[in-house]
Amino acid sequence: MLRNLSCFLLFIFCTIAFISCNEQDKLEIEKSASAFDIKQGEASVLQTNQHFMKAFKSGDTLEVSQCFTSDAKVMAPHIQPVNGRKDISSFISHLIKSGIADLKLSTIKIWGDSSILVEEGTYVQLDKQDNQIDTGEYIALWRQETGNWKMYRDIWTSNQPASAIKVEEGSLPKH
């Protein structure tokens, strides 16, 4: 009887170990299959940045705003935050009217996971004669919306003092 009990317990132990290994293997397979590919995220961000710069240069504020999530927020120097695509489109229009004709973005680094990406970079703002108006750094948080990576939060800081930035009085919105 004791021998049968020992064999039974050994059988149970081996069965549990076998099932556990199979479950662990399943988890590892699922984990690797669903692993986030940061390179695809980076490529999407860089492609959207190219689209953003092209739309900005052509003055297509609606297209620029489509690079943002519907609940995006822009936090720019010297103004209150701008919320949502409609207000972001208006804000971009004000930037263009203030004399910014072109915007060059240079990504330094992108990191994150499937829920959010963080982009760090530098920017240069140019006027119609390609004269530099402003330079600075930015951080953009990216989130997927309708299957595409879009800017969820965009914040930048100028490398120049506020007095050096040429902005027409009253051309930037006060939110």
Q: Which bin fits the share of residues in helices?
A: 40-55%
| Rg over C-alpha atoms, rounded to the nearest angstrom | 26 Å
Largest sheet entry = 6 strands, mixed
Number of structural units classed as domains: 2
Average pLDDT figure: 84
Gross morphology: globular
Q: Give the strand content.
A: 25-35%
Q: Which spans have pLDDT < 50 for at least 5 consecutive residues?
A: 13-19, 167-175
CATH architecture of the largest domain: Roll
Q: In terms of structural class, how would the helical and strand content be classed?
A: alpha+beta
Task: Give a structural overview.
Helices cover 41% and strands 32% of the residues. It has 175 residues and is an alpha+beta fold. The protein folds into two domains: 1-35; 38-164, Nuclear Transport Factor 2, Chain: A. The longest helix has 32 residues, at 2-33. The model is unreliable at 13-19 and 167-175 (pLDDT under 50).
Question: Could you give the topology of this structure?
Answer:
Elements: H1 2-33, H2 38-58, H3 61-65, E1 68-75, E2 82-83, H4 84-97, E3 102-112, E4 117-126, E5 132-145, E6 148-158
Parallel strand pairs: 1-6
Antiparallel strand pairs: 1-2, 3-4, 4-5, 5-6
Describe the structure concisely for a colleague.
The protein has two domains: 1-35; 38-164, Nuclear Transport Factor 2, Chain: A (Roll), CATH 3.10.450.50.
